[in-house]
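Lecture 7 notes: from sequence to structure.
We start with the chain below.
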Amino acid sequence: MGIFGKKAKGGGWLAVGFGADGVHAASLRHADAKPPQVTVAKFYPGAGAKSADALEKLAREVQAARFQVSTILSVSDYQMLAVEAPNVQPEELRVAVRWRLKDMLDFHVDDATIDVLDIPPDANVAGRTHTMFAVAARNAVIEARQALFVGANVELDAIDIPDTAQRNISVLLAPEGRGVAMLAFTGEGGLLTVTYNGELYLSRRIDVTLDQVLEVDVERRDRSFERIMLELQRSLDHFDRQFHFITVAKLVLGPMPQSGLHAHLATNLYMQVEELDLANVFDFSLVPELKAVAHQQRFFLSLGAALRIEERVL
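Predicted structure tokens for the same chain:
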């Protein structure tokens, strides 16, 4: 199995993620011209970051065998690098990308599972080389995650990453013909993405955790806000120079408790800043508890992963 998976079978996706306090899973139903309806949003507490017992209990309750099942890697589980797209035939692409990554990874490339995401170039400029994202994870990480699901008697069909899960939600928010930036925080830090025309063009980590954003000490919190602001300005300025054909319409903040960050960014950033309420994106009629921001924050990535599209075969 590659990182993103290619297996196809009937049924919707059940996306399973792991937090420090347990396992959570989400699934949804798509409907034409309607918001996706969330049909499953379950959480089971478990000791440790990845609990096989909690996963097995959750799988039994939601009848996981009915679904295609994906799981989401943690930030520390993989590296995501932008590389120049090799000029090779599609069947040779992964070998060529593997060769380019051999001096870029912090582990030996022979120990890596590698997949790729294309970054489409400006359609109005012919013949230009372009870049793509290479996603690399240690084979041992992939094998351990697969073994966790085998131990819980759950068939695993695909492995996702937070970057693509966040992209999937951004796609629902992007104005026609314009890009949208999204910034979300977890206990592992911040993730800034820019999505345009359904594609991920930028993914950048910000070394500020959710706890730091919610810091009650005003002085420490303001220092974190300034770090976030500086990283945003640098990243968006670089993006504008690299992808000048894309106009970013707005920055959307992922679900989080009130912190003052929205007001800070709205005052200091040159673009529109919005706070995301997932109730405006999904139909929560079957899981009304997701109207609470704390639950939206917990299920943010699993909802995004449940929206998954099969990655383009390159």
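Points to note: The chain has a mean pLDDT of 91. Helices lie at 52-62, 93-101, 139-151, 162-171, 210-213, 218-242, 261-268, 293-306.
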